[in-house]
Specification:
The complex is a heterohexamer of chains A (93), B (115), C (538), D (166), E (970) and F (114).
Chain C: H1 2-6, H2 11-25, H3 31-57, E1 69-72, E2 83-86, H4 88-111, H5 119-135, H6 139-157, H7 163-194, H8 199-205, H9 211-232, H10 241-247, H11 250-256, H12 259-274, H13 278-305, H14 309-329, H15 336-360, H16 378-384, H17 405-421, H18 427-441, H19 448-477, H20 489-507, H21 509-523, H22 526-534
Antiparallel strand pairs in C: 1-2
Helix pairs in contact in C: 2-3, 2-5, 3-4, 4-5, 4-11, 4-15, 4-20, 5-6, 6-7, 7-9, 7-10, 8-22, 9-12, 10-14, 11-15, 12-14, 13-14, 13-19, 14-15, 14-19, 15-17, 15-18, 15-20, 15-21, 17-19, 17-20, 18-19
Chain D: H1 11-25, H2 30-48, H3 61-85, E1 97-102, H4 108-120, E2 124-129, E3 135-140, H5 146-165
Antiparallel strand pairs in D: 1-3, 2-3
Helix pairs in contact in D: 1-2, 3-5, 4-5
Chain F: H1 2-20, H2 25-45, H3 71-102
The complex binds sodium ion (2 copies).
Chain lengths: 93, 115, 538, 166, 970, 114
């Protein structure tokens, strides 16, 4: 039965990587900068999920720490980019 | 791959959850790619961030509960952090998108007025 | 006391680090405390270095077997932990650096340590890097110390902004970052093949490598070599050097006099430990020789082109690098001692010369003036708890003029030129003579490289005289130079001291040479090094 | 330009942080408990300068009900958006657009909660809050019926949030 | 020992003289004179020991391995020269006392003069060739400072530099020759060298060595083609010219040739080189001397010519000629020094040295005229004077040399012709200065000098006469001693006498005398000014030298633009190329690419991940110029791919670190982007040029090559079995000895904690540099304005004015601020969690510090700089210092337990495991927080420079006082 | 897997080198970033590729090294990451200063042709 679970996990990982590829394509296509930032954000979320999958598959807490960091700070680069786009500077006076 | 043998009450829902998560995230990715304009594209990735992530986290909790080797606190915190942070991202992004669209159109109209 | 003696090898690293860190906690207005700390640190470093040197010479009986001291950081046995290794060569380099650093520090206190700049702490961190690079017996740790010294040097180069300094600073940083990447790749390959990072351990592992593995290892060593050549300032990897050194303020440039020698040291250290293989030694030698020769020639042309003194001195650094590399490239063991003698005189001389430049050119105000920079807004100072910067870099002529200023400057200038050009009777001559005479006395004398080197060395000496006579006359004898700069004793003393040290080197040349012979013998006996570091370790 | 920031210790926050700390470290050793409270208290104390506005929850019991509502809505909207993305919505054109919704909720933490809910639900994005707080602009992927959306937000989310925070 | 005293005494005197008061003319002169005389006495008393081929030696081994020993050696020849140097030195000092003005800083002058004397004595007495070269260069240097004694005069400076360059250059050449000679013989000892004459002449290096040594000698003795510096050296004070540039220093070259004569001479090459150079110099010098306008110019060229004569003699490969050469060295020294002194008197008393202005001084200065006339006669070779004797010998040798070749005729012809000119310029000198009608307008009214000034010159003239009449009773024995010391057993028989009967040499002398007189008066009558030599006048050496000097400098400058280009790209290109070359040369052996390990199966997910990562990398490379934001996004994606790779291959610590660093890096880049110029593809005219395309193609090729190289090396390593006993040790001991389960962390804080120590030093250093730079940062003017987007956005709405006293931002950041501030304590908790448990699980001080720093930075992003900083004061630079000290303290604590630096010490407190390792990691944490916050915030602060529509805080407080928040003082 | 890994390293290195040779400071900055990724992955690869065996000890002593990924390169990469971050921050600030002082973002502080 564990094999079934492993296959499911592998399938999920595949989906996440494919989603990352979609995001990547959006990064390349654009057309606007905000599209790219959105795509990077989604890239980060997919990456976080991939890490979680690695954690489940390898039975190691280590990956959850990474996922935790992405959850906590994945948004920082996104809002920095968005703020740069919106206001021209990341930290305003 | 996993260290120990998993009981059925974990395998079945866990597998289903993972498959669901995978599909949700993938559909979200496709949506990001397919939808016609920026504001519409804002929506699908949320599928991954909300329910997709939730499914994975629940599956993860199930596994850890079964193996009793790992606290579930990570999953809780991850959920919390994702929920707290995504609105910030979305607000700034959509605002940036709106602003850029407005600036673009005003520039275009200015160009039309003075060719 | 015995506690300190046990931990002596680590002092040259820990003392400046603690000093530098403490300085960061001081407010800007505590200049006196900063200076006191810096001086104390420099004196302790010099003391430690000299004591270590005494240990390696066996003057202190029974201190270290074979004159090699090993300090195991963290108490972990080699090759697993990081070890500091003091052998005659590293002790010599430590003493050289400590001397130059102390001199530069005293000199800087007179004029150059503007409170708005982290000059003193950077100098301390530079000392951490340089001393660490001389002491460490671990290739990756060497990388770390290289990075420390480079980072501190970036800050010192950029001291005072000004578009010219920033331009050269950017060049300098970019080049060094590129070479650091090479360094890392080289270290990685060495680890990947030998599975160790300890230099002695690598040496021990080498003979057992399969030929194919050895090839990959050599590639790593070659990348490492290129990185070292960049640090050593070998042409064509040193385009940044003349502008960077001459653009830096004099005390900084004086300390930099030893920076290229760190690269040379690395070549020597790693080269002798790794290059026992004949073929590899031949390739290494060839590369070193020809790049060295090119460096020597390019540097000589540079000296001829120099339009002001600091630039001339900077090119003389290039020349000295060229001479060192080319001589080492000949691969003759007999040459090591003379080459080290040359290295020592060259470091001391260039340091003195750079400091002299600062004093001599003050009358002409030829060193680049800082450009006006917009002061930072007030919140900045509040946030970081610093004072608003006072107008920077103006050389206010304060202090009592020492009598006979021009005579002093002129005399020191002549000494420096003689040292740089290798003219008698100063040790510059002894050094060059020793190198050339030894080279011509060996069997290699019938081959072209020795002749090329000999001719290049003499021509470069001639170029030095040709150019420096022009510059010196313009500086000291031109009508414009009538204005006699006012010097402080604090500035003049270290310069005079450095020159006197070179005199002492000449006066005690036999003793110095004897020590250098011992250093050379130790250097060319990797087995002793390996034995000392690893002992009976697996 | 220095403001004496009012530093304070919020007991709730301290407890929550200490709890999290022990949970994260998987321990109840006495030393760790002391450490947990030291860490929690100092974090609360230090961060309070940057969090001048404390959150005050009046009706905690409503939170559970709200969470349940939101969970159901999230699942539903996930399906809905998935259908749109995959082109399974036949027979009508999916029209998206901005929508202004009048608000009575004023508490910043309540508004933040609303933002989290709206964002977590696919198909709606928080765009902007009017300066005076009187209305919020949302972007809605499937904007068939504006009144339906206004009603949905106000009834399902705003009301419970006002009960929690105001 | 006495020999050492002879050499050291002048040097010691030099130092003392320098310390005398600046203008103490009498004291300084008396002192210098005493030193010179003392030396002379010391030399003189050695005479008994050097007669009959005796040698006095003083030997002190110094660097025997290098063949460098202090070796002084006095034989007859050296004795003779030493006497010459010291006696003439004493006379010159005496003369200079009167010559130098009261205003001149004479202490320096006498100091230099004594130094020169010491150096010259050093050359003469050296028994070691290297030592000789040392003193040789010293004479060049002292000569330089003496020529430039009046350095305010342009011609003195220029002449001095030319002399320096030529003589020092010659010295270098000589050094090379001597080095070769030493290598050939195996010793620098002169006696060894002289004893190995045959070996030297048969050695394959003989020819190059000979050329080098001869060139060295010729430069010093101002021989063609290196003669040009001497006339320019006449800018020196006349005592210097008399001493250095006629009597002694210029003799050093011929001294050396004579010294090495037994070892080097006797070959065709020697003859052609030495005799050739000598004869050309003899002729050219004499010819030029005839046409000088300056008295000292005449004397300078005459010196050149006479030195040519000596060189010729040395080149003839004849023993008798050598004797003649030595004899002429002495004679020339006496009469030329005397003439220079006379010339100096003339200049001193009349204020000019211009021959065309001087005339008829015989009436005003009869004594001077007499002395000068006799000396000039000696120079011309008039019988009964010493010049005649040696010239006679020269003629005889010129005839005797050579077999029945063309030389048979040419050498005597050259000798005679040279003498004709020699007579001509001697006559001209005397006639134009002292004879004829007295002329009216001179700078000073001429009169006889003080007796003391004339005395040295008169003494020398007396010597000329005595030697001329009684040669064998005066110079005779000394000459014999000197010649014997060189020639030893092969000493030829000769007779010094005024009258040898009517011989061909006598006839030649007669021809020369009459020819010279006729030539001079023919020229004089023809009314020529005789101010510049016909044909050769354009060859003005100083001008040519100066032009050449400037050309060299400029040419070097142009070369340097290529050799040391200031452009960055070529430099980086060089590094890349050299790295590629280094790799290529070591790897070309082949057979290394594939190791023996079986490959692990490819995971398609990983491959896909890197399809994405690679695409992003390439995208970033392409977009980095015109679409910076896109490039930053792509680099961010690459960073994430890298992070996932670390995670994939079981490196959670790395992944964590990479992730946190990535976030901070993106923020950092964006903070920087604000200050960069907008750059559009279509604005760039250079983009489409052929050159630009070619450059891009070249770089692309290099980049691909580098990529292939890195790939290949990575592959080679990856396919080899891992054999690290280091790692085995770490794994086995991490828990048992290091007390941690996270092996990587144990390595970082314990096994290799020293690396980490260094690493935080780097981080801290960078931060303080960044901080220092940004304090003085000056943005470009066009970047100073607020970003355009802000203006547009604010214009679209009502102007946004945030009040930093508000609890929440009023605008669009209100809700984000609530959320982000909610995160702050939890982020802090997470950061401490990573710090505390890093020893047993992924994390550690670095990751923890970055998390904390990021949490703070986000507060800045939503709250704004002023808002945040009005509430907390971070003082990040203090954090860096404190962190470094904490790390150092954790290392130093080990000393208390008598263990090495950084050895970990532990203590357990109620389940709380405390270790110095934790203190160390805490140090890392604090440094990282401080450094990252410092750098990012310092950058953010730059925006405060922009002018801003912001109501002044004071006004606002008055109008909008809402909360009773008193302002903190200070 | 080794092939993919090696290629990834190579692509990053190539892009880094390409950008390093570009004329704009920001390009060079990104080049240095990419190059440091390449270097880090390269160093990491020297520990060989290991799946699912992070060097975090489970269970007690004694410990079998074969059961864990090589920790040494990981430690080295950590140090390298930190140093690369610090130096690129410095480079960024220097390039900003250059831009501020010279008005251009060309690496030589002047536009080509000036
Ligand atoms: Na949403
Ligand atoms: Na670390």
């Amino acid at each position: 039965m564990t094999a079934v679970f492993d296959y499911a996990a592998w399938f999920a990982s595949l989906c996440f990587v494919l989603a990352m590829l979609c995001a990547l394509a959006r990064i390349f296509i654009g057309p606007a900068a905000q599209d790219r930032i959105l795509a990077l954000d989604s890239f980060y979320i997919s990456g976080m999920l991939t890490l979680l999958m690695l954690g489940i598959r390898s039975d190691s807490t280590a990956y959850f720490d990474m996922a935790l960091v992405i959850a906590l700070f994945g948004f920082v680069s996104t809002i920095a980019l968005a703020k740069f786009l919106l206001r021209g500077e990341v930290i305003e006076p | 791959m996993t260290g120990g043998e998993l009981p059925l009450w974990v395998t079945v829902p866990g597998s289903l959850l993972l498959v669901a998560a995978g599909l949700l995230v993938l559909v979200g990715g496709i949506g990001l790619l397919r939808l016609p304009d920026f504001f519409a594209r804002m929506h699908p990735p949320t599928m991954g961030a909300s329910l997709g992530a939730g499914c994975v986290l629940i599956a993860s909790m199930l596994v850890s509960a079964a193996l009793l080797d790992r606290p579930v606190v990570h999953e809780l915190l991850i959920t919390l952090f994702v929920i707290v942070t995504t609105p910030v991202t979305a607000m700034l992004l959509v605002r940036a998108g709106r602003h850029r669209q407005r600036a673009e159109s005003s520039r275009r109209s200015a160009q039309e007025r003075s060719p | 006391m015995s506690l300190l003696l046990t931990h002596l090898p680590v002092l040259p690293i820990v003392v400046p680090l603690v000093t530098g860190a403490t300085m960061l906690l001081l407010r800007e207005r505590h200049r006196r405390a900063r200076v006191t700390l810096a001086l104390a640190s420099a004196v302790v470093q010099l003391g430690a270095a000299v004591t270590l040197l005494a240990f390696t010479t066996g003057l202190v009986p029974g201190a270290w077997a074979e004159g090699i001291g090993v300090y195991r950081i963290g108490g972990w046995p080699a090759p697993f932990g990081i070890v500091l290794v003091v052998d005659p060569l590293s002790a010599l380099m430590l003493v050289l650096f400590a001397t130059v650093a102390l001199a530069a520090l005293v000199y800087a206190v007179a004029h150059w340590d503007n409170p708005g700049q982290p000059f003193h702490s950077l100098l301390q961190f530079l000392a951490v890097g340089v001393n660490g690079a001389f002491l460490t017996g671990d290739v990756f740790n060497l990388f770390v110390f290289f990075e420390i010294l480079l980072t501190a040097s970036y800050g010192l180069v950029l001291r005072g902004l000004g578009s010219q300094r920033v331009k050269t600073g950017l060049n300098y940083i970019a080049v060094n970052l590129g070479s650091s990447a090479l360094f890392l790749m080289g270290v990685a390959l060495i680890y990947g093949i030998t599975g160790t990072l300890n230099m002695a351990d690598i040496t021990r592992t080498l003979p057992a490598l399969a030929p194919a593995d050895r090839t990959v290892f050599d590639a790593g060593a070659a990348l490492l070599g290129v990185a070292f050549l960049v640090k050593a300032g070998s042409w064509p990897l040193n385009f940044w050097l003349p502008r960077t050194y001459s653009g830096a303020v004099p005390p900084v440039a004086a300390v930099f006099a030893i920076m290229t020698k760190v690269g040379i040291y690395a070549v020597l250290r790693v080269g002798t430990l790794l290059g026992e293989d004949q073929l590899a030694a031949a390739i290494l030698g060839g590369i070193l020789f020809y790049t060295g020769l090119a460096t020597l020639i390019a540097g000589s042309i540079g000296m001829l082109s120099a339009r002001y003194l600091a630039r001339f001195v900077a090119y003389s650094v290039v020349v000295s690098t060229g001479l060192l590399l080319a001589t080492l490239g000949l691969g003759l063991e007999e040459l090591t001692a003379p080459v080290l003698f040359y290295l020592a005189t060259s470091v001391l001389t260039t340091a003195a010369f750079f400091m002299l430049t600062g004093m001599a050119e003050r009358a002409r105000l030829t060193h680049p003036q800082p450009e006006s920079t917009a002061p930072a807004p007030k919140p900045f100072h509040v946030a970081f708890g610093v004072a608003a910067p006072d107008p920077y870099g103006l050389d206010e002529e304060v202090g009592t003029a020492i009598p006979l200023t021009m005579a002093f400057l002129g005399l020191v200038f002549v000494f420096c030129v003689l040292l740089v050009a290798g003219l008698p009777p100063l040790p510059g001559f002894i050094a060059k003579f020793a190198v050339l005479s030894t080279a011509l006395g060996t069997n290699a004398a019938n081959q072209a490289p020795v002749w090329l080197l000999t001719i290049a060395v003499l021509v470069s000496g001639f170029a030095a005289i040709f150019a420096s006579s022009r510059l010196g006359m313009r500086l000291f004898w031109a009508q414009a130079a009538r204005r006699v700069p006012r010097l402080r004793v604090l500035e003049a003393a270290p310069v005079a001291l450095l020159v006197l040290v070179t005199f002492a080197m000449a006066a005690f040349a036999p003793a110095v040479m004897q020590f250098l012979q011992a250093a050379s013998a130790s250097l060319h006996d990797p087995d002793a090094y390996v034995q000392a570091v690893l002992g009976g370790a697996p | 330009m220095k403001i004496r920031a009012a530093r304070r210790l919020s007991p709730g926050l301290v407890a929550w942080l200490a709890f999290l700390w022990l949970l994260l470290n998987q321990t109840v050793a006495p030393g760790q408990i002391v450490l947990a409270f030291v860490v929690a208290a100092s974090l609360s104390w230090l961060s309070s300068a940057l969090r001048p506005l404390p959150a005050r929850v009046r009706n905690p019991q409503v939170i559970v009900a709200l969470l349940a509502t939101v969970f159901v809505d999230v699942v539903r909207s996930n399906v809905a958006v998935g259908r749109i993305v995959l082109g399974l919505v036949r027979g009508r054109e999916v029209k998206s657009g901005f929508l202004d919704i009048p608000l009575e909720l004023r508490d910043p933490h309540g508004l933040a909660g609303l933002a989290m809910i709206v964002t977590a639900t696919p198909g709606t994005v928080w765009v902007d809050l009017a300066r005076d707080g009187s209305r919020v602009t949302l972007h809605i992927l499937d904007l068939e019926d504006e009144a339906y959306w206004i009603d949905w937000i106000k009834n399902r989310y705003e009301r419970p949030l006002r009960r929690i925070f105001e | 020992m006495l020999l050492a005293l002879i050499v050291l005494l002048p040097f010691a005197g030099s130092v003392l003289a320098a310390l005398l008061p600046k203008h103490a003319r009498n004291v300084a002169a008396a002192f210098a004179g005493t030193v010179a005389l003392a030396c002379a006495v010391l030399v003189a008393i050695q005479y008994p020991q050097v007669t009959g081929g005796g040698v006095v030696r003083s030997y002190l081994p110094w660097l025997p391995d290098l063949g460098l020993n202090l070796y002084l050696r006095m034989d007859g020849f050296a004795w003779l020269f030493a006497m010459l140097v010291t006696l003439i030195g004493a006379l010159v000092v005496f003369y200079a006392r009167y010559y130098m003005s009261v205003k001149d800083p004479v202490a320096r002058f006498f100091s230099f003069l004594l130094a020169f004397m010491g150096a010259m004595l050093g050359i003469v007495l050296s028994g070691n060739l290297i030592q000789l070269v040392v003193f040789w260069e010293l004479t060049s240097l002292t000569s330089f400072v003496l020529i430039a004694y009046w350095y305010h005069l342009d011609e003195a400076r220029r002449g001095a530099r030319m002399a320096l360059v030529v003589t020092i250059g010659g010295g270098f050449v000589l050094l090379l020759g001597v080095l070769m000679l030493g290598a050939m013989v195996g010793s620098y000892d002169i006696e060894v060298v002289l004893a190995s004459a045959d070996a030297i002449r048969g050695h394959p290096w003989y020819a190059p060595m000979l050329v080098l040594i001869i060139v060295g000698a010729l430069t010093k003795s101002a021989q063609f083609p290196f003669h040009f510096w001497l006339p320019r050296a006449m800018a020196a004070p006349t005592p210097v010219s008399a001493y250095l540039h006629s009597a002694t220093m210029v003799k050093a070259g011929v001294f050396l040739l004579a010294r090495l004569w037994p070892a080097l001479a006797g070959t065709e090459l020697w003859f052609w080189l030495v005799c050739g150079a000598g004869s050309l110099t003899l002729l050219g010098g004499a010819f030029n001397a005839t046409y000088q306008r300056d008295i000292k110019g005449v004397l300078a060229y005459s010196t050149i010519s006479h030195l040519g004569l000596i060189t010729m003699l040395l080149g003839m490969n004849s023993r008798l000629a050598l004797v003649a050469a030595i004899f002429h060295m002495l004679n020339h020294a006496t009469f030329k020094a005397s003439l220079f002194m006379a010339a100096g008197i003339v200049q001193h008393e009349t204020g000019t040295r211009d021959l065309s202005r001087l005339c008829g001084l015989r009436r005003a200065m009869p004594l001077t005229a007499t002395v000068a006339t006799v000396a000039a006669a000696a120079m011309a070779g008039v019988p009964l004077l010493n010049g005649f004797l040696s010239k006679e010998m020269f003629f005889a040798e010129a005839i005797a040399t050579g077999d029945f070749t063309g030389l048979d005729f040419s050498l005597p012809a050259i000798a005679t012709l040279g003498s004709v000119f020699s007579v001509a310029y001697s006559v001209r000198f005397v006639h134009q200065v002292f004879f004829g009608a007295p002329c009216g307008t001179l700078p000073r009214p001429p009169h006889e000098p003080l007796a003391g000034m004339l005395l040295p010159s008169a003494l020398l003239v007396l010597a000329c006469v005595l030697v001329g009449i009684l040669p064998s009773l005066t110079f005779g024995p000394f000459l014999e001693t000197a010649a014997l010391s060189i020639l030893g057993e092969g000493m030829p028989a000769y007779r010094l006498a005024v009258w040898h009967g009517v011989t061909i040499p006598l006839l030649m002398s007669f021809i020369a005398l009459t020819g010279g007189l006729l030539f001079y008066f023919w020229q004089y009558r023809s009314g020529r000014a005789m101010a510049r030599p016909p044909l050769l006048w354009r060859l003005e050496s100083q001008r040519l030298f100066d032009v050449a000097s400037v050309r060299v400098t400029r040419g070097a400058g142009r070369l340097v633009e290529y050799l040391f280009t200031s452009r960055l790209q070529p430099q980086l290109l060089m590094i890349v190329c050299l790295a590629l070359l280094a790799g290529f040369f070591t790897l070309q052996r082949g057979g290394w690419l594939r190791g023996f390990m079986p490959l692990t199966p490819i995971d398609p997910l990983f491959a896909l991940l890197w399809v994405a990562g690679g695409a992003c990398a390439i995208g970033a490379a392409v977009q980095a110029k015109y679409h910076r934001l896109a490039a930053v996004i792509m680099v961010g994606a690459v960073g994430l791919a890298t992070c996932l790779t670390f995670a994939w291959f079981a490196a959670p610590d790395l992944a964590l670190t990479q992730l946190t660093v990535e976030v901070v890096t993106v923020v950092l880049f964006l903070l920087g982007l604000r200050w960069l110029p907008r750059f559009r593809e279509w604005d760039d005219p250079q983009r489409k040029t052929l050159r630009a395309r070619a450059r891009r193609a070249r770089d692309a090729v290099l980049a691909v090559a580098a990529g292939i190289g890195v790939s290949a090396l990575a592959y080679a390593a990856l396919t080899r079995p891992a054999t690290s006993h280091l790692s085995e040790f770490f794994v086995e001991n991490a828990l048992a000895e290091g007390g941690g389960r996270n092996i990587v962390n144990v390595i970082l804080v314990d096994f290799r904690g020293f690396d980490t120590f260094g690493e935080i030093a780097v981080v801290g250093t960078v931060a303080i540099i960044v901080f220092a730079m940004l304090r003085r940062f000056r943005p470009a003017p066009e970047s100073m304005v607020r970003p355009r987007v802000q203006e547009e956005e604010d214009a679209a709405r009502e102007a946004v004015i945030d009040d930093f006293e508000d609890w929440l931002p009023a605008g669009y950041l209100k809700i984000p601020a609530v959320l982000v501030r909610l995160l702050l304590p939890m982020a802090g908790l997470v950061s401490l969690y990573f710090l505390f448990r890093g020893h047993n699980a992924p994390g550690g001080g670095f990751v923890g510090g970055l998390v904390m720093a990021t949490a703070l930075i986000v507060q800045y992003m939503v709250g704004g700089t002023i808002w945040v900083e009005s509430r907390i004061r971070l003082l990040p630079q203090h954090w860096i210092g404190a962190g470094l000290l904490a790390a150092a303290a954790s290392g130093l604590l080990a000393w208390l337990a008598a263990e090495p630096f950084l050895a970990s010490q532990e203590v357990d407190l109620g389940g709380l495991h405390l270790s110095t390792v934790l203190l160390f990691d805490a140090g890392v944490y604090v440094v990282v927080v401080g450094a990252v916050v410092l750098m990012l915030i310092a950058l953010a602060h730059q925006s405060l420079r922009s002018p801003r529509k912001r109501v002044e805080p004071v006004e606002r407080r008055a109008s909008l006082r809402r909360a009773p928040v008193p302002e903190e003082a200070g | 897997m080794e092939v993919v890994y090696a290629l990834a390293t190579g692509v990053l290195a190539a892009c880094g080198v390409w950008l390093l040779l570009r004329p704009r400071t920001f390009q060079v900055l990104l080049g240095l970033s990419l190059l440091s990724y390449a270097t880090n992955i390269f160093i990491f690869g020297m520990g060989r590729l290991t799946l699912n065996r992070p060097p975090i000890i489970r269970g007690g002593t004694p410990v079998d090294p074969a059961f864990y990924a090589d920790p040494t390169p990981q430690a080295l990469v950590l140090t390298a990451i930190v140093i690369a971050f610090a130096t690129s921050a410095l480079f960024l600030v220097v390039l900003l200063a250059l831009r501020g002082l010279t008005g251009t973002d060309h690496v030589d502080g002047r536009e080509p042709g000036e």
